[in-house]
Write a structure and sequence with these properties.
By secondary structure, this protein is mainly alpha-helical. It has a single domain (10-193, 231-426), classed as MFS general substrate transporter like domains (Growth Hormone, Chain: A). It is 79% helix and 0% strand. The chain contains 18 helices and no strands. It has helices spanning 10-34, 36-42, 47-79, 81-98, 105-119, 122-133, 136-147, 149-168, 170-191, 203-209, 225-228, 232-263, 271-297, 302-316, 323-329, 331-359, 365-397, 401-426. Helix 6 runs antiparallel to helix 17 (365-397) and helix 12 packs antiparallel against helix 16.
Length: 435
């Protein structure tokens, strides 16, 4: 073991596994947004009931996801990446399939709670695995690659879910997509192991993975939430997630509805423009990790490269304010602008996740990621309760839903610059914490 001096590239096999898990995670999450018209027809919801019931179902998911995130990080840090990731994926796959048994708003809300709690394990496990398998300079790129799985899941969903619903019924859309997670589990147990136990890993690659000198003497001691919340670095990450995570969830859960209300698209007609948004965002996810790596290779300090990249991505979201104006000329202009904003979010996301492993020891990465994920979930809940649920229902009732979407796009545009500014003042310079 680890005697081969030839540089292997097994770490990218691990990145591929995480990518596929994230794809499945978001595929299962996105299914219900595409079945909204089918569920409204099946359960005889009128327009107002549809908006209110869907908001309630979405809020149930977000509450469960936020609470699940807090405990998922501790869960992953305690059990380790291999077992923790496998349990989370197996359970959320069961939850996804269980949606097919729902018979109304209460049933869907219960299924979404189960899905939210279990899906919360994906990102803490993914970030921990990335910290275990990649040196600092490659972590944003690896994170960008696996995080692009969220885009691929969102692309696959509109291309398959409406078709399945029309041909086989909405229940089968949940069953078939949910079952994919069980196939991933087989691959995970075949190929995943920590670097020190992975026989397919060469000594040269092992040394490269552990080439960050400041991480050589890191503690392996588990750290309590109370201790972690004493650090400004934790709050910088948490607030950044609180302000920007809800924006991605807005795209994920409400984009099909926007295309329906603004342009009259529904069923399979919504597939191509929705998929296009996520194709563009995939490019942003990978490119978002590539830019800081290039800057680091040019000699930039890690944190400066990370912050500069995130500021650039924050500015790239601003054109979404003009989405509806451009869309009045041609729908595809709106799709391109929303796609640019989604790409900028994914680029931002690849880097904000990586700040955790930049600032914290590997033994705490999943816990901090969980704390930040919980705050991101809370932000999503607040957005749904005080903006989407009240605002969208109100504007729907007076037949001016376009005004509601304009306000939401303005919120999307401002969230990242506000998040970057707060993070900058909390952590102006890179400092690895000592526990």
């Amino acid at each position: 073991m680890l005697e081969n001096k030839t540089m292997t590239k097994y770490r990218w096999t691990i990145c591929s596994l995480i990518f596929f898990a994230t794809t499945i995670n978001y595929l299962d999450r996105a299914v219900i947004s595409l079945l909204k018209p089918y569920l409204a027809a099946a359960f005889h919801w009128d327009k107002i009931q549809e908006a209110a019931n869907y908001s309630n179902i979405e809020i149930a998911f977000k509450i469960a996801y936020a609470l699940g995130m807090l405990f998922a990080g501790r869960f992953i840090d305690k059990l380790g990446t291999k077992i923790g990731y496998a349990l989370a994926t197996g359970l959320w796959s069961i939850a996804a399939v269980a949606h097919a048994l729902a018979t109304g708003t209460a049933g869907f809300s219960l299924a979404r709670v189960f899905l939210g709690v279990t899906e919360a394990g994906n990102f803490p496990a993914a970030i921990k695995a990335t910290a275990e398998w990649f040196p600092k300079k490659e972590r944003a790129l690896a994170t960008g690659i696996f995080n692009s799985g969220s885009n691929i899941g969102a692309i696959i969903a509109p291309l398959t879910v409406p078709l399945i619903a029309e041909k086989l019924g909405w229940q089968w859309a949940f069953i078939l997509t949910g079952a994919i997670g069980f196939l991933w589990l087989i691959l995970w147990f075949i190929y995943y192991e920590v670097p020190s136990k992975q026989k397919a890993l060469s000594q040269a690659e092992y040394d490269y993975i552990h080439s960050d000198k400041e991480e050589e003497n890191q503690t392996t001691e588990k750290v309590s939430w109370v201790r972690l919340l004493q650090f400004k670095q934790t709050w910088a990450f948490a607030i950044g997630k609180f302000l920007t995570d809800p924006i991605w969830w807005f795209y994920l859960f409400w984009l099909p509805d926007f295309l329906l209300k603004q342009y009259g698209l529904k069923g399979t007609a919504v597939a191509l423009p929705t998929a296009m948004v996520y194709v563009i965002s995939s490019i942003g996810s990978v490119g978002g990790g590539y830019l800081p790596m290039k800057l680091i290779n040019k000699g930039w300090p890690v944190f400066k490269a990370r912050k500069t990249s995130m500021l650039i991505y924050a500015f790239c979201v601003l054109p979404i304010i003009f989405a509806q104006l451009l869309g009045s000329l041609n729908m595809w202009y709106a799709v391109l602008v929303i796609g640019l904003a989604a790409a900028a979010h994914q680029a931002w996301s690849a880097n904000i996740f990586t700040t955790v492993s930049d600032m914290f020891p590997k033994s705490a990465t999943a816990s901090v990621t969980g704390i930040g994920g919980m705050f991101g979930g809370l932000g999503g809940i607040m957005l749904s309760l005080f903006v989407q649920k009240r605002m969208f229902v109100y504007y729907e009732s007076i037949n001016q839903i376009q005004t509601g979407y304009y306000i939401m796009f303005f919120i999307c545009a401002s969230a990242y610059l506000l998040g970057w500014t707060i993070m900058h003042f909390l952590v102006p310079k890179m400092k690895k914490i000592e526990i």
